[in-house]
């Protein structure tokens, strides 16, 4: 319902970061990026009516993209993307630039042959953000909570779809009698 109601007729379907990644992660990566755009920019595929709808749609797309990546069987890829979501949320909350570089570095890390410079790029971003240990600890915990909420959303979506599927089957069975 949310997906259908907010979909743009003039949707821009040009991939942004997935060309840097392995093909098996492409759809999941672009779905997560669309969720990011719902939260912090202008989505390419959707036109949410208000900020609340944009936030809900963004969360859904984060979860949906992570599910797609998880279906590849790569726990490392899911961890990389969860870290990216957390880092970008932190960068945006602090009004610090570097999210584009983080997206590019993570997408490249999901490539067939990740570039050696990725670690240096990510460390450069982290160095810019590091202040004192207590403040950094609070930020890490906040990031972990955000990632935890995303994973809970994935579980909730799976359980909800399973319950709805069971409900539809039960209705069909009653109608056939």
The amount of helix comes to over 70%
Tell me the major beta sheet.
none
Low-confidence stretches: none
- Gyration radius (Cα, Å) is 18 Å
Derived from helix and strand composition plus strand pairing, the structural class reads mainly alpha
Number of helices: 7
Shape: globular
Task: Average the pLDDT over all residues and give the rounded result.
Answer: 82
How many DSSP-defined strands? 0
H-E string:
HHHHHHH
Number of domains: 1
Strand content: under 5%
Assembly state of the chains shown: single chain
Distance between the termini: 30 Å
Description:
By secondary structure, the protein is an all-alpha fold. The chain has one domain (2-175). The protein contains 7 helices and no strands. The longest helix is centred in the last third of the chain and has 43 residues, at 133-175. The relative contact order is 0.12.
Structure in a nutshell:
This protein is mostly helical.
Layout of secondary structure:
Layout lengths: L1 H5 L19 H15 L10 H20 L4 H19 L5 H11 L7 H13 L3 H43 L2
Helix pairs in contact: 2-3, 3-4, 3-7, 4-5, 4-7, 5-6
Any key phrases for this structure?
mainly alpha
């Amino acid at each position: 319902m949310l997906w259908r109601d907010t979909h743009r007729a003039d949707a821009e379907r040009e991939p942004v970061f997935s060309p840097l990644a392995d093909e098996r992660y492409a759809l999941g990566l672009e779905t997560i990026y669309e969720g990011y755009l719902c939260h912090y920019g202008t989505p390419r595929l959707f036109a949410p009516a208000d900020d609340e709808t944009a936030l809900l749609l963004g969360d859904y797309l984060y979860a949906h993209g992570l599910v797609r990546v998880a279906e590849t069987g790569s726990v490392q890829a899911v961890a990389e993307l969860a870290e990216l979501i957390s880092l970008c949320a932190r960068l945006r909350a602090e009004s610090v630039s570097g999210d584009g570089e983080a997206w590019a570095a993570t997408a490249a890390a999901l490539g067939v042959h990740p570039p050696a410079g990725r670690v240096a790029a990510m460390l450069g971003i982290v160095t810019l953000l590091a202040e004192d240990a207590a403040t950094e600890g609070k930020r890490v915990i906040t990031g972990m909570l955000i990632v935890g909420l995303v994973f809970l959303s994935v579980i909730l979506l799976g359980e909800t779809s399973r319950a709805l599927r069971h409900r539809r089957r039960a209705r069909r069975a009653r109608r056939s009698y």
